């Protein structure tokens, strides 16, 4: 599943279509295609894992799910979920979820929850986190209402950086360490963005998909954790379990 930084890259890549009129629309999405035809794109935005195509009175919310892809000025052999053709090119979206949000997009999103948005508010993230003291931190970091944009790679890398076991209870982690985890979620996301832009993201993984801990030279544990049942990679020796 594409994480926040990947959606930021998509948003940047389609800026050529900002201010352009949709001259043709097609695809197998169930949304009202006629609603989009001849409409002008006001802006492109991202909120966590959501890619947003904003028009005057409505917004297309695109979620690439687990295996969604896109093509700019080219097409795949398969039918796109949505194809938008402009005078200067086209955008094709595949294997994704698309919904129409009515009215002002700002009424639908809390930008302070997006770890890559200029309005990101770590203090509010901590307040929300403290309200769920019994939740495992591996689940809390994937809660998009708190850490919008954080996905499984970022979760694993942040917990390894901060020496915290993924099954630690949020309310048992020391306050200063909670602050560090929150700050690292945003910091790592921007590093992720730069590494992905330069096609070197995998080179910087410290724990994700690794077999040995680079700090302890001991085996990395690999199993699904938390209620979300997502893959966790961690070192039992240097990542402390807070219960």
Automatic annotation (TrEMBL):
Keywords: DNA damage, DNA repair, DNA-binding, Endonuclease, Glycosidase, Hydrolase, Lyase, Metal-binding, Multifunctional enzyme, Nuclease, Zinc, Zinc-finger. One of its GO terms (biological process) is base-excision repair. It comes from the Bacteria. CDD domains: BaFpgNei_N_2. Coiled coil: none annotated. Belongs to the FPG family. This is Endonuclease-8. It comes from Flavobacterium aquicola.
């Amino acid at each position: 599943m594409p994480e926040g930084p990947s959606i930021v890259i998509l948003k940047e890549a389609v800026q050529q279509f900002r201010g352009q009129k949709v001259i043709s629309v097609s695809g197998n999405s169930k949304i009202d295609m006629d609603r989009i035809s001849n409409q002008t794109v006001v802006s492109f935005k991202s909120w966590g894992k959501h890619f947003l195509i904003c028009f005057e009175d409505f917004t297309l919310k695109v979620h690439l799910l687990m295996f969604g892809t896109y093509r700019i000025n080219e097409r795949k052999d398969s039918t796109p979920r949505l194809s938008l053709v402009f005078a200067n090119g086209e955008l094709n979206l595949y294997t994704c979820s698309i919904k129409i949000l009515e009215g002002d997009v700002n009424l639908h999103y809390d930008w302070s929850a997006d770890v890559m948005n200029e309005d990101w508010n770590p203090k509010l993230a901590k307040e929300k986190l403290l309200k769920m003291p019994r939740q495992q931190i591996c689940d809390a970091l994937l809660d998009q209402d708190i850490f919008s944009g954080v996905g499984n790679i970022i979760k694993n890398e942040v917990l390894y950086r901060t020496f915290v076991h993924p099954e630690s209870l949020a309310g048992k982690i020391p306050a200063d360490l909670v602050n560090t985890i929150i700050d690292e979620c945003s910091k790592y996301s921007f590093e992720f963005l730069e590494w992905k832009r330069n096609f070197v993201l995998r080179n910087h993984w410290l724990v994700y998909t690794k077999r040995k801990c680079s700090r302890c030279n001991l085996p990395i544990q690999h199993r699904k954790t938390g209620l979300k049942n997502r893959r966790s990679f961690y070192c039992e020796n240097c990542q402390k379990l807070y219960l």
